Amino acid sequence: SFLPIQDIMNELDVSFCAPFSLQELAGKYHVSPGCLSAHFRRTVGISPMQYVTQSRMQRARLLLLNSELSINEIAVQCGYPDVSNFVRRFRLQFQQTPLQFRQKHQGRQL
Q1: CB 81, CB 45: distance < 8 Å
Q2: Digits of tens for pLDDT over the chain (110 positions)?
Q3: Is residue 31 within 8 Å of 41, Cβ to Cβ?
């Protein structure tokens, strides 16, 4: 493998809450976005954006359960400046809104 996928995953693990740019990421490794995306998908099984979204959603779940932060604050901390986009993504992933998730699982630690 000519691309250090583990390094790329480590970088995404650290920066998943920052705005995501496939173009910038590919530029760092001197390949086209399409090439990076295809290679990442072949190795990891999902696209870089799906990987980032999964990381953001896991962090959101932890914050919903283990903090008193508002849904707005959690959205921003998880890389979604637009709360409605965050709620839509969360619902797609977990079949419930962040508020429903928090109410249902309040008091449980993940």
Answers
A1: no
A2: 588 999 999 999 999 999 999 999 999 999 999 999 999 999 999 999 999 999 999 999 999 999 999 999 999 999 999 999 999 999 999 999 999 999 998 766 55
A3: no
The tokens of 56 are what? 């953001």
**Under 8 Å CB-to-CB from 80, ≥6 apart: which residues?**
56, 86, 89
Q: Which amino acid is at 2?
A: F
Residue 2 near residue 36 (C-beta atoms within 8 A): no
Say how far apart CA 80 and CA 68 lie, in whole Å: 18
Tokens of 80: 């979604």
Q: 29: helix, coil or strand?
A: coil
State the alpha helices, DSSP H only, in the chain. 5-15, 22-28, 33-44, 48-66, 71-77, 83-94, 98-105
Q: Which amino acid is at 105?
A: H
